[in-house]
Structure formats: structure tokens, C-alpha cells
Specification:
The protein is α/β, with parallel strands linked by helices. 38% of the residues lie in helices and 21% in strands. It has one domain. The protein starts with a helix and ends with a strand. About 4% of the residues have low confidence.
Length: 408
């Protein structure tokens, strides 16, 4: 090759390499700038609310929170990051040395294991505020059904896939079957696990909870716990499990089937206002009692004595870039949610995933981040802890979230 041609090739190579480096540098600089400028939206539609903090500060009252996970296999301890961030927001720096663990049991089939409940205890520095955080893990109930796909995750199949595709396939195999299994024969087992968790939450304090035992909860001791405050946090399929579980309990109580299992639960809970912080929602079948809000929830309503709670406030978080997330419209509440729960909904439209400008091609956000990022988002946790629309709203919410009050 002539020397001048070698010189031209060398020059072009250097120029190409330089242009690539410059292009990469520019791209990284643009992305870093977009990361620094947090433009994610946070819009709350509904009435101002106080979050958990106000209930926690009430004298002689414990705050009890039950978390229900969504699709995918979850080991006990899955909520640790969310739980510790929430405790920090609530100014609870003292934590019990060890959590308590209960292997849940179906009361009608005592030999069968039905999920796992882990309880953590948090206190403030003065020891006069207490949060008990209950974490339900129901993954073991669906695990056997999903074993049929284990061959697809083995080296026999996975080595044929590109690395990213293999990761996505394993994620799909882990999460996709859960809603289908829940709609089948395992639905009742999962709802029993929820009911048992609910029973442990309302009928015991920290000292009387069993630890490292397989145990059945009976609600005979619910009366001393009437003064406590309760809340639910749910994600993905866990939101449906929570609502279905409460509707199931309401039906059991109304049918008079709870004489030995839910003694005095109805009377204990009828005057409670309980929030459910939902991170994603899913569709559901029609409940047995719907479109009768006034009859069950108005003090002069004909069925007022048959309500489950005085009020259930659903604070529904949804990221518009999440392909599996939906806001809850008013018609949905009336038609698809049980009237005995006396539900009031507040929608929080929030970008938990970063939104990027794709260099003139439009804006984009990672839908995976939008699906799983709720329970790690500081704004979400601050809203759950301290609410919005009052002087004690957290600074991060005041700065980043906008309240649109909805009136009749």
C-alpha cells in the first residue's frame, strides 16, 4: 500500500475515533444534565390528607401497617428498603433487634402452610410512638405452579438467548403466571393468607405476637386493640389481593360465618378510617355488593350497620409510563369495589421513572423502572408518611408535588 494511502487511512481512523469520543461525550453530558434536572411530574387529585404521621402521634395509639407484594417471587424481607425509608420519614430511629416471623396457616386446614408474615417494630427516641410493620409474603403459594417453567430458565434453553433477552424471559417467567394462578385454584389460599395477616395485625401487640412459629390467628382478643390505627400498602397484584381480601372478610362477617374466626371484628372495625396506599391497580370481577355507597356509608343509610369500615381511603399511585398502571376513575369505584368498604379515592399521577429526551425522536421512560420504582421513590414515601395540603407536609412533597383539590 502506498505511503500516502496509509497516511489517509490513519488520518480517517483518528478522525472517526475522535468523532465517536466526542459524540459519546456529548451524549453523556446531555443525559447527565437531564438527570440533574428532575422534571418528573407529581400531581395529586383529591382532598388534603395527613398520611401516617398524624395517627402515629396520637397518644396511646399504635400505628400498624400491612404490606402486600405483587407479582414475582418475594422472599421475607423484600420490603426492607421501603420500610426503613418510611421509618426515617416518620422520625422513628429505634428498631427492635430482631423481627418476628409467623408461618401462616389456613384455619380449616391446620396442616397446610399459607404464606409468611414478618413483623418489625419501630419507636421514636422518646419511646412514646410505635409503628408495627407487617410484611406478607405469599409467593410460596404460587411457587409450585411456576415450577413447570423452570426448564425454560435452565442452561439447556437460556444459553441460546441473547443476555438481555434471557434476563427478560426469566423476569417474564417469574411474574407473568402469578395473575393467572391467582385467578385459579390458589386464589382462596392467597386470600386466607391475607385474612390471617389482617387478623394478627388487629388482634395482637408486639409482646403477644408469636415468633418463629407456625400459628393460626383467632380474633378473640381484638377488643383491646380497638384504639390502634391501621393502614395497607400494596403493589401490583397485591392491590387486588388487598381489596379482594377485605371484600372476602366483609362477606364472611355479613353471612355470620365468623363466629369462631372473626369474633367481634365487625364491631371493632366499623368506626375505623383506614387508608390503602396502592402502588398500581388491576381490574377485578364485580363484587357481590356494589353501587350502594349511600346505603352503607351514610349514617342514615339502610345498611349503615353492615359496613366494614367507616371509610377506606385509597391513595392510588400510578406512573403514566408504566404499561401496567392505571388511575382509578369514579365509575370504577362504584361498579367494581364493594360498597361495604366505603371507599374514597385519591389519584396520584407521578413519574417514578426518569423521562429523557431521545435526541429529537421524542421523550421516553423505562417502563420497567416505572413499574417497580414506587416503593423506593422518596416522594411516594413522603406522601405516605406525611400526606399533602397541610403545614406538616414534607419539604420534598411541597417542592415537587402539586395538589388539585376535587370538590362536589
Amino acid at each position: 500500500m502506498p505511503s500516502y494511502i496509509k497516511l489517509i487511512v490513519l488520518t480517517l481512523s483518528l478522525l472517526t475515533a475522535s468523532c465517536g469520543s466526542i459524540s459519546k461525550g456529548i451524549t453523556e453530558a446531555i443525559l447527565e444534565k437531564q438527570d440533574a434536572e428532575d422534571t418528573r411530574q407529581c400531581e395529586v387529585r383529591g382532598e388534603p390528607f395527613f398520611g401516617l404521621k398524624k395517627q402515629l402521634q396520637h397518644p396511646d395509639r399504635k400505628m400498624k401497617v400491612l404490606m402486600v407484594h405483587g407479582v414475582g417471587h418475594h422472599l421475607p424481607g423484600y420490603s426492607t428498603q421501603f420500610m426503613e425509608k418510611l421509618a426515617s420519614q416518620l422520625d422513628l430511629p429505634v428498631m427492635a433487634k430482631n423481627p418476628k416471623n409467623i408461618d401462616l396457616v389456613d384455619p380449616k386446614q391446620p396442616a397446610s402452610k399459607s404464606g409468611h408474615l414478618r413483623i418489625n417494630r419501630f419507636l421514636n427516641a422518646q419511646r412514646d410512638q410505635e409503628l408495627l410493620f407487617y410484611e406478607l409474603s405469599w409467593s410460596d403459594i404460587t411457587a409450585k405452579d411456576k415450577e413447570i417453567l423452570s426448564y425454560d430458565n435452565s442452561g439447556e434453553q437460556s444459553f441460546r438467548r441473547a443476555e438481555v433477552n434471557d434476563l427478560l424471559k426469566k423476569f417474564s417467567n417469574d411474574t407473568g403466571p402469578d395473575p393467572i394462578i391467582y385467578l385459579g385454584e390458589k386464589r382462596e389460599s392467597i386470600l386466607i393468607a391475607f385474612a390471617q395477616s389482617f387478623c394478627w395485625m388487629i388482634s395482637h401487640d408486639w409482646q403477644t405476637l408469636p415468633d418463629d412459629q407456625q400459628a393460626i390467628c383467632s380474633s378473640k382478643n381484638v377488643k383491646p386493640m380497638i384504639s390502634d390505627s391501621y393502614a395497607f400498602v400494596s403493589h401490583s397484584l397485591g392491590s387486588r389481593i388487598t381489596i379482594d381480601g377485605l371484600q372476602r372478610i366483609a362477606t364472611i362477617l355479613s353471612n355470620g360465618d365468623g363466629a369462631t374466626y372473626y369474633n367481634d371484628v365487625a364491631n371493632a372495625m366499623k368506626n375505623k378510617e383506614i387508608p390503602i396506599y396502592m402502588m398500581l391497580q388491576l381490574g377485578r370481577a364485580l363484587p357481590s355488593i356494589s353501587q350502594q355507597h349511600e346505603a352503607y356509608c351514610q349514617i342514615n343509610g339502610q345498611q349503615y350497620q353492615d359496613r366494614l369500615f367507616a371509610k377506606t381511603s385509597i391513595i392510588a399511585f400510578s406512573d403514566p409510563n408504566d404499561l401496567l398502571s392505571y388511575a382509578i376513575p369514579h365509575d370504577f369505584v362504584s361498579k367494581y369495589l364493594d360498597s361495604r368498604l366505603c371507599i374514597d379515592v385519591m389519584n396520584v399521577n407521578i413519574n417514578v421513572a426518569k423521562v429523557y429526551d431521545a435526541f429529537g425522536l421524542g421523550k421516553l421512560a423505562n417502563p420497567m423502572d416505572a413499574h417497580v420504582g414506587y416503593d423506593n421513590d422518596d416522594r411516594v414515601i413522603a406522601l405516605i408518611a406525611n400526606g399533602i395540603g397541610h403545614p406538616h407536609t414534607a419539604d420534598i412533597v411541597k417542592k415537587n408535588c402539586h395538589l388539585i383539590e376535587m370538590v362536589e
